[in-house]
Amino acid sequence: MSKRKGIISVLKHSVLIIGASFMLFPFFWSVSTSFKGLKEIFRNPFSFVPLHPTFGNYVALFNEIPFARYLLNSFIVASLTTLLQIVTAMLSAYAFSRLKFKGRDLIFYAFLATMMIPGQLLMIPQYLVVARFGWINSYQGLIIPYAATALTTFFLRQFFLTIPKDLEDVAVIDGCNSFQVLVKIFLPISKPAISTIAVFSFMWSWNSYFWPLLVVNVPEMRTVQLGLAMFRTEGGMQWGQFMAGTVIATLPILIAYFFAQKHFIKSITLTGLK
Amino acid sequence: MISKRKKFRDSIKGYMFISPTALVITVFVFFPLIYAFIMSFHTWNMSSAPIYVGLRNYTTALKSVDFWNSMLYTFYYVLGVLPFSLVFGLFFALLLRDNTMRGTGIYRVIYFMPVVTSPIAAAMGFNWIFENQMGIANHLLEKIGSQPVSWLSTPTGILQMFFNNFNIALPKVLQGPSLTMCVIILLGIWQNVGYATVVYLAGLQSISDTYYEAASLDGATKWKKFWHITLPLLSPSTFFLLIMFIIASFQVFGPIQIMTPAGGPLNTTSVIVFYLYRQAFSYYNMGYAMAVAFLLMGFILTMTIFQFRFLERKVNYE
């Protein structure tokens, strides 16, 4: 029996390792290519690991195209989008879960319904609105349309509903107003939910492509994803540099993922966020 | 009287708290939605005034060969990505189910890595692997003595390729996705399997052991247990994944644009969103593009409602 178990375990691991290699290979091959010189990239027979590793592609990436600027743009846009989404969601989630006002449920359902609308449908008129505001090629144009979403509001509202009322009753007796209750009581308790939103908003914003593609048409305002895509269509066959750019564009998200992976996977299974 | 004033004050407070979110959603969701709807009944090239044309944009789209081809390619993509992502996701979840096994955590982290990777970066990686001349896929084919394949410029459907051996020409709809589309489908599967695995793992963990124990007492085989316990009790996870994947797959765009910036060989990777994007921003057919967007939304909505009406009945919510 134990021998049979051993065989099954070996079999299981072999299958899982094959699966893992399939998952990891594109990462590995991108990293490997990014450290190869031009000659080695085009050489056949190829080698899996660079024989003469070089930083040349990375140096070229930052010298020849403003990749540092793209990174900075992405950081600014993703961080501010995340911050604004948390603030707006906290306020509206508090209202929807604790305050009584006319039309509350109706407004809430109207917000929820927006989650069903495919993004592409809205993007053309969104683009026209942003153009009318004069926000083409600006951070506002990239950030403000996504400063509040129904999804984050909904997610945080569900969390706020689980917070016992007694806590805030005490604070109200102590003379706190709603805003103070929100900051002093709800904010500390909701840290797990808020960090979930933070991770997903940041990742979503960092990885977004279609919207920046519409709003940005000057090189200095490009985000990383946009810079990468434009580089691909304009740059011909510079695969070493493409892969260096791909590695750098992916790294921040992967690092964040490794640090928060337990949290990440758990919240995905709980909420279905993606 | 006092209570009425308090109610009024409460209402004002509520509106103040929701106002930032409401403002953004009104300006960037509700207004665009109405605007798009109105514009879908106009022709408009962004430089001259819009002209009302009634339903013409919709009828033009529904009569357009390119529109239906794009729908077909989108279907190919969805039908390629969906089943493989679900089956492999379930398969790996079943293997990783046993928490006492070593390394389950590491596998889970690795399988999930493609999910967090940006579609653009992932498409770049796949683009390089399947590059026609220097890609490693072809180098490996050469190594085992096969002819290199033009992965990213073969317009022939894969089913047609198979039937070419017997000199049979299939009708367009049955020719299958082009080889290029298959590479993009592979990318889609690569990015989705980890997600399905994690969702199925959560589903598996919520199945109580008592079911299996009872089945064992009745002398059920492993296969029977899988078929009669695991699979039915996982149906909420399957249903959830189905909804998520269908909504997302119908809107695929980024990878298509990276791998085939011109819409692929003979336009065989021009999915519906790619078609819509080109109509709007290459040809400036704004009204037409919005009509196409509404047709797409109608499609996704119908599919989703269909799933809720007919499939959810079969879902087993314990």
Task: Write a structural description.
The complex is a heterodimer of chains A (274) and B (318). Chain A has 274 residues and is mainly α. Chain A has 2 domains: 1-54; 55-271, MetI-like fold (Orthogonal Bundle). Chain A is built from 14 helices and no strands. Chain A is globular, with a radius of gyration of 24 Å. Chain A starts with a helix and ends with a helix. The model of chain A has no long low-confidence stretch (mean pLDDT 89). Chain B has 318 residues and is mostly helical. Chain B has a single domain (58-314), classed as MetI-like (MetI-like fold, Orthogonal Bundle). Chain B is 70% helix and 1% strand. Chain B contains 14 helices and 2 strands, in the order H-E-E-H-H-H-H-H-H-H-H-H-H-H-H-H. Chain B has helices spanning 2-39, 56-63, 65-96, 104-116, 119-129, 136-143, 158-164, 179-205, 209-217, 222-233, 235-249, 254-259, 272-281, 286-311, and strands spanning 42-43, 51-52. Chain B has a two-stranded antiparallel ribbon. In chain B, helix 3 crosses helix 13. Chain B is globular and about 70 Å long. The chains are: A mainly alpha (274), B mainly alpha (318). Chains A and B meet through helix 1, helix 4, helix 5, helix 6 and helix 11 of A and helix 1, helix 3, helix 4, helix 5 and helix 6 of B.
